[in-house]
Specification:
Layout lengths: L3 E6 L6 H12 L3 E6 L8 E2 L6 H6 L3 E2 L4 E4 L2 E4 L5 H12 L2
Parallel strand pairs: 1-2, 3-4
Antiparallel strand pairs: 5-6
């Protein structure tokens, strides 16, 4: 039975970045699910595109200025430029 992965996005789940991530997880033997949401309540530490860090704070999270941030089982990244660090963190934690 494949391990399940939840990919949370706010762009409808149709961007190439999300579809690429889904493809890579399928290749690695995982079962990804895509959840598209417009607003959610957040806790903990995360990163995202710098221009929306105010919204992150308004939802209750602490914004960290790093390419990839790991907070428990939640791994976030800033942009497509963050892919190397983001995928490194993801596969490091999936293999634990």
């Amino acid at each position: 039975m494949a391990k399940k992965i939840l990919i949370v996005t706010d762009d409808g789940g149709e961007s190439y970045e999300i579809l690429y991530a889904r493809h890579r997880f399928l290749e690695a033997g995982y079962q990804p699910f895509i959840a598209a949401t417009k607003r959610k309540l957040l806790n903990g530490r995360l990163t995202c595109y710098e221009n929306v860090r105010l919204e992150v704070a308004q939802c209750g999270a602490t914004w960290i200025n790093k390419q990839s941030v790991v907070d428990g089982k939640i791994i976030t990244a800033q942009t497509w430029e963050s892919h190397p660090e983001f995928y490194r963190d993801i596969f490091k934690h999936l293999n634990q």
